[in-house]
Design a protein that fits this description.
With 253 residues, the protein is an all-alpha fold. The protein has ten helices and two strands; from the N terminus they run αααααββααααα. The chain starts with 7 loop residues before the first helix and ends with a helix.
Length: 253
């Protein structure tokens, strides 16, 4: 097979996505270790949110490694199921954390919201897998999106709509969660957590706008990936508040 030449920007995008996957994976392992130690159920869910965010990056991250080793790219749609599972589980895990903390006394509301979003996610997953794997001769690229670079596709309307639903939900719930935390005046640690989370979700919103690279160029997608890496680090600090950050901010337990 001939070596597939890809642009410097494509290589940078693949490298940053791989780096994001590795960082998320490392952080998720740290969280899992602490969850086992403290036996805290919410930490297990936080682990799922970070770990499956990492999983969602491995489609591009592993393809970048594959290209380095073989000089070729994956066929269209390869590992899409893994990517979708990562996106959906990480989203639902975050939503559960938000509802558990903010709506702790309203179990029926928690269940209803999770069911609604679960149905939306399942419907989209079935839609994508149907056109990718089941329907013979289906116009897959028209339904899901055309490849515009080595590692990116131009999302179809339904894919874009699904992505925006999840993105806006994460932004709104994340900002609400962080603002509520910042209003806790009698607990400096929680207040600082809210500040880190507020920055995290603002960065996350812009980081997930990498589809705008269609209009702004692939360089924007590379910057967006770097922003996502920073966002994940702020998410980790805002949720876990590691000891080194407590010392830096002079926060006492």
């Amino acid at each position: 097979m001939l070596f597939v030449a890809i642009s410097i920007s494509d290589q940078a995008y693949g490298m940053m996505t791989l780096l994001a996957a590795i960082i998320d994976l490392i952080l998720s392992m740290i969280i899992m270790k602490k969850a086992f130690k403290q036996r805290e159920s919410l930490l297990y869910v936080f682990f799922l949110a970070i770990f499956f965010t990492s999983v969602s990056y491995w489609q591009v991250g592993s393809e970048y490694i594959y290209w380095i080793l073989t000089g070729n790219l994956y066929p269209y749609g390869f590992l899409t199921e893994i990517n979708l599972i990562g996106v959906i589980i990480s989203f639902l895990a975050w939503l559960y954390i938000y509802l558990k903390v903010i709506q702790d006394r309203r179990l029926n509301v928690q269940i209803l919201i999770l069911i609604i979003y679960g149905i939306i996610c399942l419907a989209f997953f079935i839609y994508a897998i149907y056109y990718l794997r089941i329907a013979p001769g289906a116009p897959v690229k028209e339904m899901l999106g055309y490849e515009i670079t080595a590692f990116m596709s131009d999302a179809s309307d339904i894919v874009l709509l699904f992505s925006l639903i999840l993105l806006i939900t994460v932004l709104v719930t994340g900002l609400h969660f962080s603002i509520k935390s910042m209003k806790v005046l009698d607990n400096p640690a929680v207040k600082w957590k809210g500040k880190f989370l507020f920055i995290c979700f603002i960065l996350y919103f812009f980081g997930e706008m990498d589809f705008m690279s269609i209009f702004l160029g692939l360089e924007f997608a590379v910057i967006a990936r770097i922003i996502l890496i920073i966002s994940t680090i702020f998410f980790y600090i805002g949720f876990m508040m590691p000891d080194f950050m407590k010392k830096l901010l002079n926060i006492k337990d």
